[in-house]
Amino acid sequence: MNRRLQILLDESEIADIRRIAHCHHLTVAEWVRHTLREARQRESGRTTEEKLEAVRRGIGHDFPAGDIDEILHEIN
């Protein structure tokens, strides 16, 4: 489901955003969505590829593990 996000900008901000979007041959809405996606990815700390690489490295290890019931018993 799509949701609408409304923000208030002053005239100079919206003029800058319109100009930038136009330079990229995008609508303002497309540019804003693209920019927000990039910001969310930066905030997540790592790219999807970096996360997948970490998982690949992790499954490459072969450490001995005990029986799960025994381990849980020892923890308790």
Report on this structure.
- By secondary structure, the protein is mainly alpha-helical.
- It has one domain (1-61).
- Helix content is 64%, strand content 0%.
- It contains four helices and no strands.
- The chain has helices at residues 11-23, 28-43, 48-59, 68-75.
- Helix 1 crosses helix 2 (28-43).
- The protein is elongated and about 65 Å long.
- It starts with 10 loop residues before the first helix and ends with a helix.
Structure, briefly:
Helix 1 packs across helix 2. The chain has 4 helices and no strands. Helices cover 64% and strands 0% of the residues.
Number of strands: 0
Poorly predicted tracts of residues: none
Helix content: 55-70%
Number of helices: 4
Largest sheet: none
| Rg (CA only) | 23 Å
The average pLDDT value, as a whole number, equals 91
